[in-house]
Amino acid sequence: MRWLRPFAVTALCASLAACATSPTGRSQLLLLSDAELNQMGQQAFAQYQQDVPMGDQASLRYVQCITDAIVDVLPERQRNQDWQVRVFKSDQPNAFALPGGYMGVNTGMLDIATNQDQLASVIGHEIGHVLANHANERASTQNATSLGLSVISSASGMQSPGGQQLMGVLGMGAQYGIALPFSRRHESEADTIGQNLMAQAGFDPRESVTLWQNMQAASTGGAPPAWMSTHPSQDQRIDGLQAGMDQAMATYEQARGQGRTPNCPRP
């Protein structure tokens, strides 16, 4: 059934004129407007700031310094976006980015990312999500999948107990066959974009691998199989970053030669 997915996306693109291309050249289905997504991002960011306490100002200056260095190498349209970053007091080693350029970094991530280059990998990754319109693509794909299942249900008369059971199986297939792979694909794509961005800004891309080695060392408990997870496994992420390392290092050396030598003091 895997061949049906690109066919369905192509059909939707043709009928809705909603096709786009990600920074890595991958075809995307984008149904929502930037204005809609940005408004949702702003609302979610405001709510998060109400729910989670802020970190200290020294940590914010550190994160802002790294963010500014990466934003400075973005194309003009994205560079002029109103990027906003906050540090949140939470032990969970996490970071996030929302449509509209709203980003958050938890203090727990500062314990895992032990230097500016490792944190640049995290921030570059989150900016990569925004540049690639991943939130729009995910929402658009979920909407299109829901619509498709509804059409199948109506056309097939699946209202009997047996039909409802089949719809449950189809729903599970959509979850593990479409939604989660898209999420894993987004994470891997953001890793690639982020690695390139950090290198362009003069941060050492080799530290992107070290970051994930730190994450492995800090992990506790078992993780779900990669095919049932919204993220690639840590080993998969390291392999992906290593695969792009030669190109990233060439970009890094060129950036350093051009005088891009960021120096963001860690608090």
Summarize the biggest pleated sheet. Answer: 3 strands, mixed
Mean pLDDT: 78
Q: Uncertain segments of ≥5 residues (pLDDT<50)?
A: 1-17, 147-181
Rg, rounded, reads 20 Å
The chain-level structural class is: mainly alpha
The number of helices is 11
Q: What count of structural domains?
A: 1
Strand arrangement, major sheet? 3-5-4
SSE order: HEEHHHEEEHHHHHHH
Topology, number of strands:
5
Distance between the termini: 52 Å
Helix content: 55-70%
Could you say which overall geometry the principal axes of the C-alpha atoms support?
globular
Strand content: 5-15%
Explain how this protein is built:
It is a single chain. This protein has a three-stranded mixed beta sheet with strand order 3-5-4. It has one domain. Helices cover 64% and strands 7% of the residues. Mean pLDDT is 78; it is low at 1-17 and 147-181. It is built from eleven helices and five strands, in the order H-E-E-H-H-H-E-E-E-H-H-H-H-H-H-H. Strand 4 (95-98) and strand 5 (102-106) form a beta hairpin. It is mostly helical and 267 residues long.
